[in-house]
Amino acid sequence: xLPSRDGLVRIRANIxxxxxxxxxxxxxxxxxxALAVVEGDEQIESLSVFQTSEVVEICVQDGxxxxxxxxxxxxxxxxx
Length: 80
Description:
- The chain is mainly beta.
- The chain has one domain (about 10-75): CATH 2.40.50.100.
- About 0% of the residues lie in helices and about 45% in strands.
- It is built from no helices and eight strands.
- It has a four-stranded antiparallel β-sheet with strand order 1-8-6-3, with no helix packed on it. It has a four-stranded antiparallel β-sheet with strand order 5-4-2-7, with no helix packed on it.
């Protein structure tokens, strides 16, 4: 999850499954804080950021089934 030139990071599901969103647009998130949890058939994945960031877009609905590599949210990393 590397930021683009404008500092945006697209948070993607690494497994297919049902999404549980844990953040809202405009929220500031910190490293290791769960943005979303994806529950697949045999795995559960918790997604977080590496750097303090602001949630700028939510791309899926809570409870939605998504395939692997779906963009779940977009965050903007805060400048240190």
